[in-house]
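Hi P.,

Sorry for the delay on this. The queue was packed all week, but I finally got your sequence through. Input first:
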Amino acid sequence: MLKKILSTMFIITMVTTVLAQDSTKDHSLHISGSADAYFRYDLNNPQSKPYNNFTSFTNSQNSFELGMFSLKAEQTLGKAGFVADIGFGKRAEEFSYNDKSSSVAIKQLYFTYAPTSRLKFTIGSWTTHIGYELVDAYLNRNYSMSYLFSYGPFSHTGVKAEYDMGNKTTVMLGLANPFDLKYASNLPKMVIGQIAKATNDDQLKVFLSYQGGKYNDSSRLYQADMVVNYVLTSVFSLGCNGTVQSRQGNFEGKWQQSKTWWGTALYLNADPKDWLGFTLRGEYFDDKKNALGLNAGIFETTLSANFKIDNLTIIPEFRFENAGQKIYSVYSGGMVNRTADFILAATYHF
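Then the structure:
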């Protein structure tokens, strides 16, 4: 596996080097990347998976863990462009869970064509438009992920059109494979869409997003999502995410009663110094109808500090959860309805 990873990195390095040598002609080649690692300790000291972790990317206990190394190449030449984004590591594997199990994953690979300055078409695979948080750790102020991120879609593969209507308003409409599937022969296709609106000074931004349709021959899903970002001052800002998802199965030709989960999360951000930031995330996640198998309502609160040293960010984080059911394990093997953990993470981007 290590030989495969090193070989892939060598090929990518050679290709990007060749492209960079010709960048005087293309004017728009951009190479970027990021990496992350963390340590997590749950105070209940569980002894087996899922280690009181029901969200993405931090399923460990009392262990130093590598997250993901990403390498991204972007180029625009005239009206056409492409993005290739490859991830290495456990985080990349979990993000691409529907692909063949591998610690090397194509996070994004898509091509664009913009016939006018207001209209752009995209075909390929890209990270989802739904939700507040993002797969690359350095783009999030909290290191651990929310329930809303973890149980929403991660990516879409298909085609979409984006149109700038002016007055800081953009609409997107597309047709894609069932969510998180890069390969989906003979499976139904889902509709995706988004309306984005911002004030002239970008102080307030609102995103209304959607995905819906059959994701196999006997199941269908509909999800509506809203994200609001508001900048109060140069120090304080707010983020809010609310989502509702309905799933329905078909049995012997009849659609059964749908099961719905929903949740909301509020992000309070403070940046008193250029090198120091704080984020408090408060989230409520409701799966009382057992659409996802948790069968509980969960309150989650996470407080993270961001210490920035150039492109390096150190994130100490405390997370507390309280559920309506006893879903968390303790060292003795019993079950309780609350847990708390500490994470120390580091992210770097270039």
